[in-house]
């Protein structure tokens, strides 16, 4: 009947879904009972729901199908409702770039479904129902515009760079290594959500709204996951695990790393597979899993381990029972499963990786990265894995370009094994926070974007353009000018561009000492004279510091200038040639001695500098050691405090457990007391809403279990008590109890007692309404009143009579009887009629007639007897007997025997008929 009922609320046609119903605009479709609805190519189709003992989740099922079928054109709305149905489906729509709206819980009658979707971050907007139509119109306008996400060109490169800069500046995260197509699609989606037509307008909107920066950041992270995504891949992993676990001794660690774990479903799925595999192999290994993600909100959800009941569609019943516990409308990972994994916030691209890992599962990250970032991340995985460790990638990912590091174990399901080759580690690392490259060994940043050519040309012009190199303060060559092959050469082994290491023989010491002198004295130029050697002429080595405002680090210019030749002194006439040669040789030796002294002084200076650096390093090491010791002491103190706190928590937990047990016992006692008293009772809160009721209360009001929380005014009672609601309100206001008798349609009567509900703190928080069945009491009162009335009437009757019971004993005799027959009550009451002292009372015919009156309920009239009484003489009597019953139509219980004395002529006329 639902289509007919809904048709009264809307002008749109309302139809029940049949097989292959095409979805049309401005129509309402109703799901038949026992089926779930799916959609394919715009056609609604029905699927039979197989009973699994779990809640039917039609919203999740349909939303997931809608996301697959419609993509960015899908829109899902979750309104007021209980449970968590719709949460996972709404997340699927959002991941497909569709629109997801959730009702503001403050406007919802039942907030369960909206709150579940909001906590799972599955909502694009949280709005009241009246605000949703405007958002839908904005979305429809965007889909009809040229900027449709599935048809428009990518957002221009310059705008993407501007948005990346805003994200780095405001959020401290760098997405420059993500694929620009992915970023562009997500930016276009946000533009559609807000109805923004141009990228430049969106950049300005982003600069003015920090909340949009957060929303875009979460969209870029694309943290959508599910349990056992691609089940075939997990089956293939199960087949590969025995080889990985072969030869492992019991108790040895098994380490797993899951980068990009999102909300934790992937990590828990892997744990379940590992536990089941270890159980089949009968191995007991110590599982250590590290699951990381860049999103702190997703990590918080993963740490809680609580997921909507919709995961029942992906997790089998046996696994749900073994690894999860049901908590209302959700499932929570058991503590034994949760304790095996450590969730942490980590940037897998830039932060140090985990090491000595046996399995890396990265199935939600590589597909969004540029090829260079993919290769770097794969090298990081190679570094992390143990020999023959396994790497599991997503179905759309591969290890292309890293064949030297990984070999495919199952190419179809992307399972790879680590090779024994060594992956080179990068020398520099991009810091997203500082926006600069930093050396892996520390030190000052290298200005990657600074134009070094301009200051180099200016310095060379000042020094007449000799061959020169530009180096930083560590001697690393940044730029070369001219032909320096006669002075520098590449050393053997690993590539090294340090100017000291590249210097040819005889130049290493002068260059090192000149660099040291130039660094120590910034306002002077260090020079060295170097004698010629072989084909190399003598030269003058000059090291000077470059100064320019755009330089972020200290740079030095090392130039090689040929030495000026002094004219050869000729021997004077008459001076011996040998003496002249000795003078030249002495001058040469003196020059060599000066050079040697200079080299030695340079070596001494370098040694002293090295000693000073070692001393400084030693002091830093000592300082670091002291800090580590201090930190260790603080950690030890924190450990002791934690242990103390843990003990206190254990004590509090024990007390709480005892209190819970006492509370359960008190609750059981209260329930048994209420049930055994068999008194209809209804407990109402301060707003006169039903808090609790006893089973007997169903006799006086139409109550069912779901009525708890409903107002008393909405309930129909079976008693004739129209002032029940007002009397209950009056009791709350005055705190005076109220008692009223009320009748029920079946003729029963109840005493309705209303008393204040007082708590242990003596506060009034409602009323207690009890209904006592007083039907029997009222019946007894009426009988007592009737009996008193009857006795008054009996004593007022002038003719004597007797009331006999079923054994013909005297139950009651009236005053006339005692007077007429000169009898006393103690001689009459309780005696058989035949023992009253007169022969006529014992005649058989009279007894037969009385017994017949009791059995058949028919009396007799004018039965004449004659008796002789000692005190009064002979009497003639007419006896009339009538049966008495407590209820109409029932068997007679008493006999009323009336006695009329015949006197005068009447006695004579009746004399011949006396028996």
What does this structure look like?
The structure is a single chain. Helices cover 39% and strands 22% of the residues. It is of the alpha+beta class and 915 residues long. The chain folds into six domains: 2-157, Rossmann fold, CATH 3.40.50.180; 158-222, Chemotaxis Receptor Methyltransferase Cher, domain 1 (Orthogonal Bundle); 231-418, Vaccinia Virus protein VP39 (Rossmann fold), CATH 3.40.50; 453-565, PAS domain (Beta-Lactamase); 678-773, Beta-Lactamase; 789-913, Beta-Lactamase. Strands 14-10-9-15-16-18-17 form a seven-stranded mixed sheet. Strand 31 and strand 32 form a beta hairpin. Helix 6 runs parallel beside helix 8 (199-208) and helix 6 (157-171) crosses helix 9. It is elongated. Mean pLDDT is 79; it is low at 146-153, 426-451, 566-571 and 907-915.
Write the layout of secondary structure elements.
Layout: H1 2-7, E1 14-16, E2 21-22, E3 28-30, E4 35-40, E5 43-48, H2 58-70, E6 75-78, H3 87-95, E7 99-103, H4 112-119, E8 125-127, H5 129-144, H6 157-171, H7 180-194, H8 199-208, H9 210-221, H10 231-245, E9 253-259, H11 265-281, E10 286-293, H12 296-304, E11 306-308, H13 317-323, E12 324-327, E13 330-333, H14 335-338, E14 341-345, E15 357-362, H15 371-384, E16 385-393, E17 406-410, E18 415-418, E19 428-431, E20 436-439, H16 453-462, E21 468-472, E22 477-481, H17 499-502, H18 508-520, E23 526-530, E24 539-546, E25 555-562, H19 577-677, E26 680-684, E27 690-693, H20 724-734, E28 738-743, E29 749-758, E30 764-773, H21 775-796, E31 801-804, E32 810-813, H22 815-820, H23 844-856, E33 860-869, E34 873-884, E35 894-902, H24 905-909
Parallel strand pairs: 1-3, 6-7, 7-8, 9-10, 9-15, 10-14, 15-16
Antiparallel strand pairs: 2-5, 4-5, 11-13, 12-13, 16-18, 17-18, 19-20, 21-22, 21-25, 23-24, 24-25, 26-27, 26-30, 28-29, 29-30, 31-32, 31-35, 33-34, 34-35
């Amino acid at each position: 009947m639902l289509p007919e009922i809904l048709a009264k609320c809307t002008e749109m046609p309302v139809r029940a879904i049949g097989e292959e119903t095409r979805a049309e605009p401005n129509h309402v479709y109703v799901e038949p009972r026992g089926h779930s609805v799916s959609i394919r190519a715009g056609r609604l189709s029905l699927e039979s729901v197989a009973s699994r003992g779990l809640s039917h989740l039609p919203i999740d099922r349909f939303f997931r199908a809608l996301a697959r079928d419609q993509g960015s054109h899908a829109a899902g709305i979750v309104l007021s409702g209980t449970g968590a149905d719709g949460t996972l489906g709404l997340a699927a729509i959002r991941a497909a770039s569709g629109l997801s709206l959730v009702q503001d819980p403050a406007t919802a009658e039942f907030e369960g479904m909206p709150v579940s979707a909001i906590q799972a971050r599955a909502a694009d907007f949280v709005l009241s129902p009246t605000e949703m139509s405007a958002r839908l119109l904005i979305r429809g306008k965007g889909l009809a515009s040229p900027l449709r996400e599935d048809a428009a060109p990518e957002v221009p490169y310059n705008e993407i760079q501007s948005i990346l800069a805003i994200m780095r500046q405001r959020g401290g995260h760098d997405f420059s290594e993500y694929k620009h197509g992915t970023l562009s699609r997500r930016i276009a989606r946000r533009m559609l959500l807000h109805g923004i037509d141009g990228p430049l307008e969106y950049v300005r909107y982003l600069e003015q709204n920090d909340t949009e920066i957060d929303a875009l950041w979460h969209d870029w992270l694309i943290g959508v996951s599910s349990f056992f995504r691609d089940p075939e891949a997990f089956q293939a992993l199960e087949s590969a695990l025995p080889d990985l676990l072969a030869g492992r001794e019991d108790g040895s660690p098994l380490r797993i790393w899951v980068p990009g774990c999102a909300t934790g479903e992937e990590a828990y799925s892997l744990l379940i597979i590992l536990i089941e595999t270890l159980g089949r192999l009968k191995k007991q290994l110590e599982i250590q899993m590290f699951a990381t993600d860049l999103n702190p909100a997703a990590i918080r959800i993963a740490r809680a381990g609580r997921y909507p009941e919709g995961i029942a569609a992906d997790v089998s019943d046996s696994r749900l029972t073994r690894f999860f516990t049901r908590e209302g409308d959700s499932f929570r990972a058991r503590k034994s499963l949760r304790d095996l994994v450590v969730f942490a916030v980590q940037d897998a691209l830039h932060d140090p990786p985990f090491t000595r890992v046996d399995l890396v599962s990265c199935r939600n990250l590589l597909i969004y990265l540029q090829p260079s970032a993919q290769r770097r991340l794969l090298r990081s995985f190679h570094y992390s894995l143990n020999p023959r460790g396994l790497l599991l990638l997503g179905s759309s990912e591969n290890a292309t370009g890293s064949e030297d590091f990984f070999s495919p174990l199952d190419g179809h399901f992307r399972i790879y094994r680590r090779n024994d080759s060594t992956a080179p580690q990068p020398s520099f690392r991009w810091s997203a926070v500082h926006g600069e490259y930093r050396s892996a060994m520390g030190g000052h940043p290298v200005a990657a974007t600074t134009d070094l050519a301009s200051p180099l040309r200016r310095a060379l012009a000042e020094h007449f353009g000799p061959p020169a190199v530009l180096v930083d303060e560590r001697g690393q060559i940044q730029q070369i000018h001219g032909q320096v092959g006669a002075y520098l050469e590449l050393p053997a082994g690993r590539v090294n561009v340090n100017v000291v290491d590249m210097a040819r023989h005889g130049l290493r010491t002068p260059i090192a000492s000149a660099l040291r002198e130039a660094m120590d004295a910034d306002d002077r130029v260090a020079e060295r004279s170097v004698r010629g050697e072989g084909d190399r002429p003598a030269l003058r080595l000059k090291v000077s510091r470059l100064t320019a405002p755009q330089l972020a680090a200290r740079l030095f210019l090392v130039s090689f200038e040929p030495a000026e030749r002094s004219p050869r002194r000729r021997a004077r006439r008459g001076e011996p040639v040998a003496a002249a040669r000795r003078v030249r040789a002495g001058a040469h030796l003196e020059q060599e001695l000066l050079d040697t002294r200079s080299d030695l002084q340079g070596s001494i200076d370098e040694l002293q500098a090295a000693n000073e650096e070692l001393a400084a390093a030693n002091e830093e090491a000592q300082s670091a050691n002291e800090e580590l010791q201090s930190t260790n002491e603080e950690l030890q103190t924190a450990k002791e405090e934690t242990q103390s706190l843990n003990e206190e928590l254990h004590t509090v937990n024990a007390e709480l457990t005892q209190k819970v047990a006492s509370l359960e016992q008190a609750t059981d006692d209260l329930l048994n007391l209420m049930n055994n008293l068999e008194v209809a009772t209804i407990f109402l809160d301060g707003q006169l809403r039903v808090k609790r009721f006893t089973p007997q209360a169903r006799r006086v009001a139409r109550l069912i279990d779901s009525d708890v929380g409903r107002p008393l005014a909405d309930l129909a009672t079976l008693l004739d008590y129209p002032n029940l609601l007002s009397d209950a309100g009056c009791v709350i206001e005055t705190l005076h109890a109220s008692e009223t008798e009320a009748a029920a349609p079946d003729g029963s009567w109840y005493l309705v007692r209303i008393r204040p509900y007082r708590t242990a703190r003596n506060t009034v928080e409602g009323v207690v309404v009890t209904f006592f069945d007083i039907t029997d009491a009222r019946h007894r009162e009426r009988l007592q009143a009737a009996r008193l009335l009857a006795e008054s009437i009996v004593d007022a009757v002038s003719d004597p009579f007797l009331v006999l019971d079923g054994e013909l004993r005297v139950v009651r005799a009236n005053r006339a009887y005692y007077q007429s027959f000169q009898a006393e009550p103690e001689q009459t009451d309780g005696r058989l009629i035949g023992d009253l002292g007169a022969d006529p009372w014992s005649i058989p015919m009279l007894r037969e007639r009385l017994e017949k009156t009791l059995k058949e309920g028919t009396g007799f009239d004018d039965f004449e007897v004659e008796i002789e009484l000692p005190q009064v003489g002979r009497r003639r009597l007419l006896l009339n007997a009538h049966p008495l019953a407590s209820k109409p139509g029932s068997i007679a219980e008493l006999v009323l025997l009336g006695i009329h004395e015949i006197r005068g002529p009447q006695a004579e006329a009746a004399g011949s008929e006396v028996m």
